[in-house]
Amino acid sequence: MKVLVLGIGNILFGDEGIGVHLCNYLKVNYSFESQDNSIEFVDGGTLANMLIPLIVEYDNVLVLDCVSVDGANIGDTYSFSFDKIPSCITWAGSAHEVEMLQTLHLTKMMGDLPPVHIVGIVPEVIGEDTAFTLSQSLIKGAITMENEAISYLESIGFICKKIKNIPLQEIANNSYKGF
Predict the structure, then answer these.
(1) What is the pTM of this model?
(2) pLDDT class for 153, splitting at 50, 70, 90?
(3) Per-residue burial over 3-12, b = 16 or more CB atoms within 10 Å of its CB, e = otherwise
(4) How many Cβ atoms from other residues are within 10 Å of residue 167's Cβ?
């Protein structure tokens, strides 16, 4: 099985880049072993519909992103299947979130959507000043996000081992370089 870990977000706007940053964090800090599965980590940025040709090439997709949730606290993390999006998730907090939701719906309508699991976190900073700095609430919540992503990958057959401990903020500071 080919697995895609897809980081979504705009890295220029603080917390909104968490999907990309966490994708890079996992890629750099963990090893992923499986006899039956391969894994690829991709910075999907804000490409939305342009990601459809990529998404359909995989058997399973893990999306990492920020989400909007009515009444939630900054740093709250949500882990769910695309087929079972909780009603409290609005995904209306930033321009890229609505587009990513539409991208997944369009891919599903075409009959090409593989199983998709989403791990999202409620951000503090969306689209204010250009900055790579992540809020402290998000950094604390990202630990849960990391654990949920690892748990999901283990549930589909990967052995995940932490091999480095580069801090998330350091990853965020360098995400623009690619990993």
Answers:
(1) 0.94
(2) very high
(3) bbbbbbbbbb
(4) 11
Tens digit of pLDDT for each residue in 54-84? 999 999 999 999 898 888 999 999 999 999 9
CA proximity to 176, closest of 31, 22, 21: 21
DSSP secondary structure letters along the chain:
-EEEEEEES-TTBGGGGHHHHHHHHHHHHEEEE-SS-EEEEEEEET-GGGGHHHHTT-SEEEEEEE--BTTPPTT-EEEEEGGG--TTB---SSHHHHHHHHHHHHHHHTT-PPPEEEEEE--S--SSS-B-PPPHHHHHHHHHHHHHHHHHHHHTT-EEEE-----HHHHHHHGGG--
d(CA 102, CA 50): 11
